[in-house]
Amino acid sequence: MSNELAAFLQAAPPAPPIIVKIIQPEAKSDLEGLSDVLLGSLGLTGVITLGALLLGALMACVMFWLRSRSA
Q: pTM value?
């Protein structure tokens, strides 16, 4: 029984090492990163502005139509 206990308590053989290869991304200059941010923000601003203009035109049409019906 002591042999079984000794075999049970022995450490498991070590696992093989895990090797991780880290690949560096392409180096971008600071100006390229800045231009990406500026173009993205201008795109978002353009979408918001276009939406506001379309909503304003829609509201103007609705108000004009309602006023023409009441006259």
A: 0.47
